[in-house]
Structure formats: structure tokens, C-alpha cells
Amino acid sequence: MKAWLCENPIGPEALEWKDLPTPEPKAGEVRIAIKAASLNFPDLLIVQNKYQAKPTPPFVPGSEYAGVIEAVGEGVTNFKVGDAVAAFGGGGGFGTHVVAKTSLLMPLPKGFAFDDAAAFLCTYGTTWHALMDRGALKPGETVLVLGAAGGVGTAAIQIAKAAGAKVIAAASSDEKCALCKELGADATINYAKSNIRDEIKALTDGKGPDIVYDPVGGDLAEPVFRSIGWRGRYLVIGFAQGTIPAIPLNLTLLKGASIVGVFWGEFARREPKNHVQALADLAAWYAQGKIKPVIDTRLPMTGLKDAFTRMGSRQVRGKLVLVNE
């Protein structure tokens, strides 16, 4: 097999495309021939040694992928050779083959495209857990999505609309805002050109959004929280801007509002039954055409470094996907 090996986690430039022994699955594991893998922001942090989970080098990065099972380990009865699956977690996705625990796998229904599946679990799993579980989104509520043209942002627009919400999508360019409108956003804010607080006030008749979905962090967080509605829920997804904001806690008191942490990976580990049900609901929505990953670019698996460079340009709309031909 071939894979991108990280022997020195100083950044994508240190990754090498290498021949490696094809692994054999152990008890409770399967070997997957990878058809597609997608890039997530934590993948960059991991190869820079900046993520909270730090794998021991050498390792193969790539946390989200889809493919076909070609071997099963001892005791595996719920999957068989030939099954199409997607997986998130454990690493190893940026290559031609990977061994994964069956607990990480999502069986793919017939008709679920591999490139869509490789861009599905993390973004849609995170967003379902955020909006539907942690945010308790109700039909008719208003959701403000920051970083709305990115992977989780585009998922948030689709899930919020499918749940009957009004969506205000905030992004950093007119082109990104246009994409958000195509995905169903009711209104958009280009926060590179306008005052986001003024725009929020105008678009909500001064009431503010019921939910803020924030994968960006940084200097937008406090002004947006100051604009949140009464009993609002501010969902902390991540910090793509790089800076972890410090929001004055007196604002939660004045707004009767909540700051809600969203850690989908830990949710999946601690609440496996709820996690499995969420994935089943999402797969049904995909089959019904209500949600579909937005794929910015498809590259060959050998183009991982180019994908990281594109991610760093902040011009990505949706997800970057790497495919094995």
C-alpha cells in the first residue's frame, strides 16, 4: 500500500508519500480499500502537532474517509468483505488502505457516493449534534452561521433549513455569500465589507438570532454574542481563525443566553446509541436530497500537499476531497 507518512509533525511540508506494509486487521477491525478521503481543519493541526490529540510519529494522517472492506478481523460479524463504509477517527485515511475499528464505521446505503461519504461524517455529524442536540433547534427559529461557506458551515445551512429554521449565513466574500444563498440561506452577511452587528440587527428586526453556529472564533465572537437573542444559544464548534476568544460572562447574564460546547467525537464515544441514530437520520436526509456535501475540489490522493495549500488560502467552499483512482 501507499500512504502519506508523518514522521516529523512540523507541518504538511514534512509529509512523504511512501510504500508501507499492507496491514492485517486484528480482532474487531476491518481493512478498507480507500476510495476517497476528505480534509478537515483538525488534520492540519495534527500534522503541525497543535491538536489536542497528538498521535505518536510516525503516523498516517487523515481522519475521514470512505471505501470498501476487503478483509475482516476475528469476531467481526456486523460487516463483511465488499461492504461500502465511511469512517471518522483513528487516522490513516490519506493512503490507499487503512485498518479501522468497526466502532468507527458507518455502513453506506446503496447510492451513497464515496466522495460524498468521505465528506459527510465529520461535518454533518458535528452539525447535527450541534444544532439538533446541543442547540435544541426548533422550527421557526433563526440560526446565524459563521464561516458559512466552509465544510461545517455549508452543512449547518442545510441541516438548519431541513429542520425548519430561518438561516442567516455570514461569510468573508460576496462569492461565498452567493454559494450560501444557493444552499438555501434566507439572508447573507459579508462580514469583510459590513458591520456584522448592524446587519444582524437589521435582518432580525432587532431581536438577534436564537442560535449562533460558530466554527470560526477569533474577533467575531464577542460582537456576535452581543447581538444574540434572549435565551440564545451560542454553539462553540471550533476556532478556524486561530484565536480562542474570551467572551465576558456578564453578557450571558444580560442576554439570558448560553455558551454551549460542541465536541462531536466525544459525544459519539460517550453516547453511541444517540450517535448511531443521528447518523441514520442524516443518511435518510441524504437519500431524500435534503442534504448533500458541498465539494470544493477533488484531487488525486497524491495531491494532499496541494489540498493543504488550498485549505490555507481560506478560499475553500465546502470540502476538499482526495480520491484513489
From TrEMBL:
Its EC number is 1.-.-.-. One of its GO terms (molecular function) is oxidoreductase activity. Residues 11-322 form the Enoyl reductase (ER) domain. SMART domains: PKS_ER. It comes from the Bacteria. Keywords: Oxidoreductase. SUPFAM superfamilies: GroES-like, NAD(P)-binding Rossmann-fold domains. The keyword Oxidoreductase applies. Gene3D superfamilies: Medium-chain alcohol dehydrogenases, catalytic domain (3.90.180.10), NAD(P)-binding Rossmann-like Domain (3.40.50.720). The keyword Cell membrane does not apply. It holds the Pfam family ADH_N. InterPro entries: ADH-like_C (IPR013149), ADH-like_N (IPR013154), ER (IPR020843), GroES-like_sf (IPR011032), NAD(P)-bd_dom_sf (IPR036291), Quin_OxRdtase/zeta-crystal_CS (IPR002364), Zn-ADH-like_protein (IPR051397). This is NADPH:quinone oxidoreductase family protein. The lineage of its organism: Bacteria, Pseudomonadati, Pseudomonadota, Betaproteobacteria, Burkholderiales.
